[in-house]
Amino acid sequence: MNNEIIKMLNADITGEIEAILTYLRHQFVCGICDISRTVEEVARDEMRHVEWLSESVVGLGGIPTIEHAQLHLEGEDIFAMLKRDVGLEESAINLYQEHIDAITDPKLKHLLRKIMNEEMEHRDEFAEKLHAISSVQPQESVNAAEKPELTIGSLKEDGEEK
């Protein structure tokens, strides 16, 4: 039974690592702005999730993975980045729910619920940022070259280097 649980927890770690790498890239591309600060905070939360999950794997006698899924990294299209971020959180929520349903250990269920609740908060934060930008320019996708007023540089705070 522990091997099955370890496999599930390692799948969760894999997803968290994918999110960390994706969010860090999005944060770097955005530069210093409200969106990049939110993405950075979420990436830090995901790192904490990896720590908690890894401790659980070790506690069960396993070895935590350092694998990640194939990354699908977008260019400077802020809409695509935020949509991807919302999608990663949705996938994580679904996976955590499956694992909560499959695991009987109350301590692990509690941990996974805690992480899942944070993922729901992250999803909502990303969706809020996406909605805010969409209300400025309600197109499906805006490329920096097509709409210079919504380039990553234009999202940086006043006084910050662009």
Can you give keywords for this protein?
162 residues, elongated, 5 helices, 71% helix, mainly alpha, disordered C terminus
Q: What's a quick, concise take on this entry?
A:
The protein is built from 5 helices and no strands.
Task: Give a structural overview.
There is one protein chain. This protein is mainly alpha-helical and 162 residues long. Helix content is 71%, strand content 0%. The chain has five helices and no strands. It is elongated. The protein starts with a helix and ends in a 7-residue tail after the last helix. The C terminus is likely disordered.
Helix content: over 70%
From N to C, what is the helix and strand string?
A: HHHHH
Distance between the ends: 53 Å
Major β-sheet annotation: none
Question: Which band does the percent of strand residues land in?
Answer: under 5%
* Low-pLDDT residue spans: 138-162
Give the integer mean of the pLDDT values: 83
Number of helices: 5
The secondary-structure class comes to mainly alpha
- Per DSSP E runs of 2 or more residues, the count of β-strands stands at 0
The gyration radius over C-alpha positions equals 17 Å
Overall 3D geometry? elongated
| Oligomeric state of this protein | single chain
Sequence-ordered SSE layout with sheet pairings:
Elements: H1 2-30, H2 34-59, H3 78-102, H4 106-136, H5 152-155
